[in-house]
From TrEMBL:
Binding-site list for ATP: G67, A68, S69, D73, I99, G177, D182
Organism expressing this protein natively: Thalictrum thalictroides
Ranges of residues in domain tRNA(Ile)-lysidine/2-thiocytidine synthase N-terminal: 64-200
GO CC annotation: cytosolic tRNA wobble base thiouridylase complex; mitochondrion
Pfam families per UniProt: ATP_bind_3
A GO BP annotation: tRNA wobble position uridine thiolation
This protein's name: Cytoplasmic trna 2-thiolation protein
Length: 233
């Protein structure tokens, strides 16, 4: 940390700029404010609550599947949404929905994380595999077609698998862990590709309202760095 004259200050020697009585423990990536752990938790969670409310992401009584990959974004999303659902009485039935692409050494590890989340957060889990849905694992597909374009196949299959899983769970919406950095990346990609149609759509917080199941991104305004810090704080 640096003071106004640029001199190095010991971390924690400043007071939190929000509560003004605890020592600051971190510099918030989104606002550069120096704040304590407790205030970071609170502003992180309550900003997501504001996004949910302002954008009317959910309605009371809805069944919501959280696309759970076992990665940091969807793991934090599952925790925060279940907390906010309780704290603010959203009245939602939350589920974890995981797609097992059949990628040895990658998805099998992260599925273990999702199974732990099922127990820790008390959210029912549904796992659907490419093998069951399509008769092929991603490893088998790569053996057939090679590595070229395999991400395109996988992306299309996963999108459809999430829709199939959502239909099986009879949910009203799927929430994914896409964050502000992911969205910025997609904007740049669509500019470079000159894909004007996607460029217009890719920043929407709710998509697919005309398709089988709408999707929403409660982390649309959440910085990736803060999602990383949150479980460590
Ligand atoms: N196999 C999967 N099963 C269920 N949902 C998934 C799966 N893969 C991705 N998703 C959903 O799509 C979002 C974006 O996925 P992406 O592959 O870009 O990973 P990411 O940005 O690293 O997110 P995460 O840290 O949650 O893996 C995830 O946060 C999750 O909600």
């Amino acid at each position: 940390m640096e003071d106004i004259e640029g001199k190095q200050k010991k971390p924690g020697s400043r007071l939190c700029s929000i509560c003004t009585h605890k020592k600051a423990a971190l510099k918030r990536p989104k606002t550069l404010e120096q704040i304590c752990r407790e205030c970071f938790f609170e502003v992180f969670e309550e900003e997501i609550h504001k996004v949910v409310v302002d954008n009317q992401l959910f309605k009371s009584g809805e069944r919501i599947a959280i696309g759970a990959s076992g990665g940091k974004d969807s793991t934090v999303l599952a925790y925060v949404l279940s907390e906010l659902n309780r704290r603010h009485n959203y009245g939602l039935d939350l589920f974890l929905l995981s797609i097992d692409e059949g990628i040895t050494g990658y998805r099998d590890d992260s599925l273990e994380t999702v199974k732990r989340n099922e127990i820790e957060y008390g959210l029912p889990l549904k796992v659907l595999s490419y093998k069951d849905l399509y008769g092929w694992t991603m490893d088998e597909i790569v053996k057939m077609i090679g590595l070229k374009n395999n991400c395109t196949f996988c992306g299309v299959f996963r999108r459809q698998a999430l829709d199939r899983g959502a239909a099986l769970l009879k949910v009203d919406k799927v929430a994914t862990g896409h964050n502000a950095d992911d969205i910025a990346e997609t904007v740049l990609l669509n500019i470079l590709r000159g894909d004007i149609a996607r460029l217009g759509r890719c920043t929407s917080i709710i998509t697919g309202e005309d398709g089988p199941i709408p999707r929403c991104k409660p982390f649309k305004y959440t910085y990736e760095k803060e999602i990383v810090i949150y479980p460590l704080s």
